[in-house]
Specification:
Blueprint: H1 2-32, H2 34-37, H3 51-71, H4 76-91, H5 93-106, H6 110-122, H7 127-133, H8 139-162, E1 169-173, E2 208-212, H9 222-228, E3 233-238, H10 240-254, E4 263-264, E5 282-287, E6 292-298, E7 304-307, E8 317-320, H11 326-331, E9 337-340, H12 348-354, E10 356-360, E11 363-364, H13 368-371, H14 373-391, E12 399-403, E13 432-433, H15 441-447, E14 453-455, H16 458-462, E15 468-470, E16 482-486, H17 491-502
Parallel strand pairs: 3-6, 3-9, 8-10, 9-12, 12-14
Antiparallel strand pairs: 1-2, 1-13, 4-5, 5-6, 7-8, 10-11, 15-16
């Protein structure tokens, strides 16, 4: 009997061991066999995301990070739209997860299991590796991808807008022009440039508006200009064409109307008429309602001019080609927008008449390459732009522009040799500009690689030979024709519209 009892006890132990082994096998198979998962749901199915949901969650998160990194500082509106859309995707994940889980429970595919294993391996790799090797998006991530696609379209639209070339386009007739009356604006406009006050009879040139090829140029209004330039100063520094642009701005902002509230603040910038002078060195006016100041300073060469003997009125003047005008050095910190130009005073006749002597490095120039007019002008333009660009680091709020040269239209001679520009038709030289490069190669090369922007007006102005003063004057006296300066209202108004658009 005792032997039988021990035999039974040993059998019982064997049965227990066999049962434990079988149970272990079943549990192991339950966890590892896809077939059993279609019958028995995971133990914590309700409490945790399925593997595919983890993929979706990781992909949405990575997608947001990629968008944030690629679009940061480019277009805040695009980023905000992306974040909003991504949040909507994440909010919809709960309902979509249930549907996807049911699909997996009914018919899981071998590819889906492989994808899950692949993502599991990726968890142990670097974050950069995860971004590059994530599996193809599931439905929820496709929604995110579509959102990203829409945002990319918006981003491309933004880039295209920023890349608009205002120098390409065509002149079109606009019966709502001009922006001010040539009979008015006597407060700001020199009578010699107001062709309405002359014997000229054709004024179709006032009806033309510049239409850029790849974008719509914002309409100019005085109220928008003053609002945009609130508490700011716009300074034009250059020759008489710069003065025309300055007078054009004053007429455009006021609509040519008399303004008794506008203040003359020239004394703040040393712009006062000296004893024996025909006119002051420039003008400065302030619109008190918005504290907006617009000024012009005459600097035909854009370099520093220093009399060699201040006691002698007929003294030579040192023309420091590599040094900015003293006016700019003294007052640049007060400017918010600066527009520079030079060009037509760079000829031997002007230099000799003004007794300008070229200096470089503080001493008379001895370099023959610089002694020629093209070399001297090239050095000066590059020097002034380089200097202004260096100052932009000190004054990050300053926007600086270099305006390309305004074209002359003398035919059959020059200013003093019988040159004329009597054409009155805007169609004589065509109406459209399609070239990619600026017609002012020196200006384009000088601003390249700097933060000084090119206000490119040369090619579009070249088409407008009918817009000059020509033979017309207030007294209609015969003599040399002015095929350099423009009738106002006229072409310089377009320069200011482009400047306004670029602000």
């Amino acid at each position: 009997m005792k032997a039988i009892f021990y035999g039974l006890r040993n059998n019982h132990v064997y049965l227990v061991l066999i049962t434990l082994v079988c149970g272990t096998v079943v549990l192991w198979a339950w966890e590892k066999t896809p077939f059993l998962t279609t019958i028995l749901p995971p133990q914590d199915h309700v409490m945790r995301l399925s593997p595919d949901d983890k993929i979706k969650e990781q992909q949405v998160s990575v997608g947001e990070n990629i968008l944030e990194q690629s679009e940061k500082g480019v277009d805040i509106a695009v980023v905000n739209a992306t974040n909003t859309s991504s949040s909507a995707v994440e909010e919809g994940n709960t309902n979509l997860t249930t549907v996807l889980d049911k699909e997996h429970e009914i018919s899981p595919s071998t590819k889906e299991v492989s994808d899950v294993e692949q993502v599991s391996k990726q968890k142990n790799s670097s974050k950069q590796g995860e971004k590059k090797n994530l599996v193809a998006p599931s439905s929820s991530v496709r929604t995110d991808s579509s959102v990203r696609g829409e945002d990319n379209n918006n981003l491309m639209s933004h880039v295209e807008k920023q890349a608009c070339s205002y120098a390409k386009g065509k002149w079109v007739t606009d019966d709502s022009r001009p922006l001010y009356s040539g009979f008015g604006c006597k407060q700001w406009l020199s009578s010699m440039w107001s062709c309405r006050l002359t014997q000229r009879q054709d004024f179709q040139y006032e009806k033309l508006r510049w239409q850029p090829k790849d974008c719509k140029m914002e309409d100019f209004t005085g109220s928008k200009f003053l609002s945009r330039m609130k508490d700011k100063t716009l300074a034009f520094v250059g020759d008489s064409l710069g003065r025309q642009q300055f007078q054009s701005v004053m007429c455009m902002v006021t609509g040519g109307e008399q303004r008794t509230d506008v203040l003359n603040v020239g004394e703040e910038y040393g712009l006062v008429k000296g004893r024996g002078a025909i006119r002051p060195g420039g003008w400065a006016y302030r619109f008190p309602n918005t504290n907006t100041t617009v000024l012009y300073y005459w600097s035909a060469s854009l370099c520093d001019l220093v009399p060699l003997d201040i006691t002698n009125l007929s003294t030579d003047v040192a023309m420091h080609l590599d040094r900015p005008p003293a006016f700019l050095r003294h007052y640049l910190h007060k400017f918010d927008v600066l527009v520079l130009n030079t060009g037509h005073h760079w000829n031997r006749g002007k230099l000799n008449a003004n007794r300008w002597v070229m200096y470089v490095g503080g001493v008379p120039n001895t370099d023959r390459k610089i002694a020629g007019i093209p070399g001297a002008r090239n050095l000066t333009v590059h020097s002034i732009i380089k200097w202004v660009n260096s100052q932009l680091l000190r004054y990050p709020g300053l926007k600086a522009f270099y305006r390309s040269i305004s074209p002359r239209h003398f035919f059959n001679g020059d200013w003093d040799t019988g040159g004329t520009c009597e054409n009155t038709s805007a169609n004589a030289a065509g109406m459209e500009v399609l070239q990619e490069e600026s017609s002012d190669d020196l200006a384009a090369r000088a601003v390249k690689g700097t933060s000084v922007k090119l206000l490119d007006i040369t090619a579009l102005s070249q088409l407008r030979d009918e817009g000059h003063i020509s033979r017309y004057s207030i007294k209609a006296t015969p003599g040399a024709q002015d095929c350099l300066h423009w009738c106002l209202p006229g072409v310089p108004d377009t320069w200011n519209e482009i400047l306004f658009a670029q602000l």
